[in-house]
Amino acid sequence: MTLFSTLAEAGRIRIAHYGMALGAAAALAGPFxxxxxxxxxxxxxxxxxxxxxxGQRRLFALQRAFTPxxxxxxxxIRAYDNSGTAVVTRHADVVEVxxxxxxxAVVYEPRMRKLTAGENFFLGMQDGADYTRDxxxxxxxxxxxxxxxxxxxxxxxxxxxxxxxxxxxIDVPVELGRRIPLHLLDRYFGTPGPxxxxxxxxxxxxxxxxxxxxxxxxxxxxxxxxxxxxxxxYLDAAIALRKAQPEHGGDILGRCxxxxxxxxxxxxxxxxxxxxxxxxxxxxPTLAKAATQALNQLLERPAALAGARRAAQAxxxxxxxxxxxxxxxxxxxNPIIYRRAARDAxxxxxxxxxxxxxxxxxxxAANLSAMFDPLAWDAPEEFxxxxxxxxxxxxxxxxxxxxxxxxxxxxxxxxxxxxxAKDGLRATGPLDKGGTPFPVRFVVEWxxx
Length: 449
Ligand code: HEM
Known about the structure:
Layout: H1 3-37, H2 39-51, H3 53-66, E1 69-72, E2 84-88, H4 91-99, E3 104-105, H5 109-116, H6 129-141, H7 146-164, E4 169-171, H8 172-177, H9 179-189, H10 196-212, H11 218-244, H12 252-261, H13 269-299, H14 302-313, H15 317-330, E5 337-341, E6 345-347, E7 355-357, E8 361-365, H16 367-370, H17 405-420, E9 426-427, E10 443-445
Parallel strand pairs: 2-8
Antiparallel strand pairs: 1-2, 3-5, 4-10, 5-8, 6-7, 9-10
Helix pairs in contact: 1-2, 1-3, 2-3, 6-12, 7-9, 7-17, 9-13, 10-11, 10-13, 11-13, 13-15, 13-17, 14-15, 15-17
């Protein structure tokens, strides 16, 4: 590249950057005005705009351009102790926060200990011997080579069976999205729970409590404590029952017990139970939510939906996955990932947007914003299926990147494949979260073949 073409390219990207911000400002002006002068109804409309992923993307576009790293003394999150809030929006800075694990630490430990009635879980730990031991143990039980041999065939078959029995319409989160991970809890984990409904309910409220209860709502905590006690009791009994059998079996629970029998440290019954609690919370509500939200985004884009349908009908899993993950970029399960500054730290050092973040500040690394940053992403507003996979930040980044990332990558397209293969697919109404962090109803239908 010549100096001239480099400068021209830099100029084009900057123009796109500020162009996005101005477009966002224009789109948000109306709702903000209505919010300012429209009384309760106007405020509710503004809340709805900013609560929707498209509203959040617009707000982030403005922040990215004008105050990319915002630090305030306000405490936006009450669930975990903090002395202020920082919102980090550019791709480079979001990645920096998530990679500087010693400076920006995970916060989940106190709530994790409440759920296990004592112990921490590795998502709540900083780098250290316990973290390495627990992740290593669980990786020995949840193996990557299970995907082609076991996990994908189980998920694909279950999705096909559900769709074969569906009468021209389906409520995606309840009748499809969560039933695949629940099936895997049974056949792959060996911990089906007393019923699918209870497992879905327990894991959802626990996820809500750990990750989405930003205001520390006492009723969420009360429900989570009850669900955690039930899940602990169930898992204790399942472990005891399996140990009483002569063969432990080849599923995840059986493998954990085999590691215990071999004298592996960190694999007492209690350790196995607590690790399973952490994994189950990550497993069910997330996959169900991701499948539903990705489908919703596809349904809003006819060309993308047609592309996904062709890929599903042609059994082209790679192309189908590219559609699903690009759709999820527009409405990821976690739009922000939060950390707390363990000590005073400067981010984006040496740039004009460098910011000092005081110790104790809650740092919201806005991965949704990062994935729309035109300084890092080519034409981020476009739906494209040729983006490099490792650029996405759909399930974290750095040391705590999702333990289930390969499962997500393999299973999500399988959940949606037989549905996306239908001609004439359409939503009967909007995706409904029913006041929770999860889709609780999203009915789609298709004409008889
Ligand atoms: C689409 C589905 C999923 C999404 C969107 C998702 C999202 C995430 C995110 C954002 C993180 C990082 C949290 C942070 O850094 O604060 C994470 C970590 C984690 N996830 Fe997932 N997850 C999904 C599926 C799963 C599955 C299937 C499992 C279980 C096999 C799982 C287990 C975990 C665990 C154990 C961690 C902690 C990893 C560590 O601390 O090293 N997740 N996930």
